[in-house]
Design a protein that fits this description.
The protein has 304 residues and is an alpha+beta fold. The chain has 2 domains: 155 residues, 2-Layer Sandwich (Ribosomal Protein S5, domain 2); 129 residues, GHMP kinase, C-terminal domain (Alpha-Beta Plaits, 2-Layer Sandwich), CATH 3.30.70.890. Helices cover 32% and strands 29% of the residues. Strands 1, 2, 3, 4, 5, 6, 8 and 12 form an 8-stranded mixed sheet that branches. Strands 9-10-7-11 form a 4-stranded antiparallel sheet. Helix 1 packs across helix 3, helix 2 runs antiparallel to helix 3 and helix 7 packs across helix 8. The structure holds cytidine-5'-monophosphate (C5P).
Length: 304
């Protein structure tokens, strides 16, 4: 049995750290937007074991890869002894704050569940996803959502009409930011944890009912404080985007990608050229039209 799935990425229009729990994790409220830039995963059932290959060197193909771990936790929870071969075609860059690995993990859970006749229910899949990583539950679905808790409590919101027809530019410099470091470094920036909760809902409401320009000042990411302090280039890139046509710009998750939302594709293209001439060629520049097309059922092919 074979199956192929696409797995998308995300940006956080808002990431507000509102507390810290005893296990050291931070309590968050986030407004998360699915972004139509896709990795592809091909699955084939095998006799035993988990095999993973990837088109990109440098991406782990063992238990260091979230897709591999998702396959392992699925098999163990569902009591399945069959193996699986997975091939991962990566487009989304790692350590960019785009949730690429989390999306791969969620796609793996969904694909294996389909290949094994829906062996696990939605609640169990959600539980497994949350154990794999804070962002993984968001990727079990493909709607814009407010996420709370560690990120695992997902509440889809009304479509953000203010983003319709906009163009997204993602610029990732040649370095990544490890997520654990970004959260750890936040301890030195108490003011970045002092905004009251309620802002994700408020931004969702403004983007559903008003214009992007009116809502742009409400985009916020607590992790910009520690990350911009260590990597001032990222702050300059965000300011440059806002001064060169972007209606909103922010760091994605824990970085290092900066996203810019432009009124149209031509503005995104001219911002791309301006960014390159100001900062040199970046390791990844990608564009997408919003809101994007996400298949309700993510499976693209299924054959016996
Ligand atoms: O859940 P995930 O594995 O993506 O988290 C990576 C790291 O980011 C965690 O080990 C933790 O240090 C930090 N984190 C956090 N609070 C969250 C999510 C992640 O402190 N809500």
């Amino acid at each position: 049995m074979k199956l192929s799935r696409k797995s998308h990425c995300k940006i956080n229009l808002l990431l507000n750290v509102v507390g810290q729990s005893d296990d050291g994790f931070h309590e968050l409220e986030m407004l998360m937007l699915p972004v139509p830039i896709f990795d592809r995963l091909d699955f084939e059932l095998a006799n035993s074991g988990i095999g993973l290959t990837c088109n990109q060197p440098g991406i782990p193909t063992d238990s260091g890869n979230l897709a591999w771990r998702a396959a392992e936790s699925f098999a163990s929870k569902a009591g399945i002894t069959d193996g699986v071969r997975i091939h991962l075609e990566k487009t989304i860059q790692a350590e960019g704050g785009l949730g690429g690995g989390s999306g791969n993990a969620a796609a793996t859970l969904l694909a294996l569940n389909e290949l094994h006749g829906q062996a696990l229910g939605q609640a169990t899949l959600h539980e497994l996803a949350a154990e794999l990583g804070s962002d993984v539950p968001f990727f079990l679905q493909s709607q814009t959502a407010v996420a709370r808790g560690r990120g695992e409590m997902i509440e889809p919101v009304a479509p953000l009409a203010a983003l319709d027809g906009k163009s997204l530019l993602l610029v990732r410099p040649g370095f990544g930011v490890p997520t654990p470091w970004a959260y750890q470094a936040l301890a030195k920036f108490p003011e970045a944890k002092s905004r009251p909760p309620g802002q994700a809902d408020e931004l969702a409401r403004r983007l559903a009912n008003g214009t992007l320009t009116e809502a742009a000042d409400a985009f916020y990411n607590s992790l910009e404080a520690p990350v911009f302090n260590k990597f001032p280039l990222l702050k300059l890139m965000r300011e440059h985007a806002l001064a060169n046509g972007a209606e909103a710009a922010l760091m994605c998750g824990s970085g290092s990608t900066i996203f810019a939302i432009c009124p149209d594709a031509a503005t995104a293209e001219s911002l791309n050229r301006a960014t390159e001439s100001a900062f040199g060629q970046q390791s990844l520049v990608q564009t997408a039209s919003l809101p994007g097309d996400f298949p309700k059922v993510k499976s693209t092919t299924a054959s016996p």
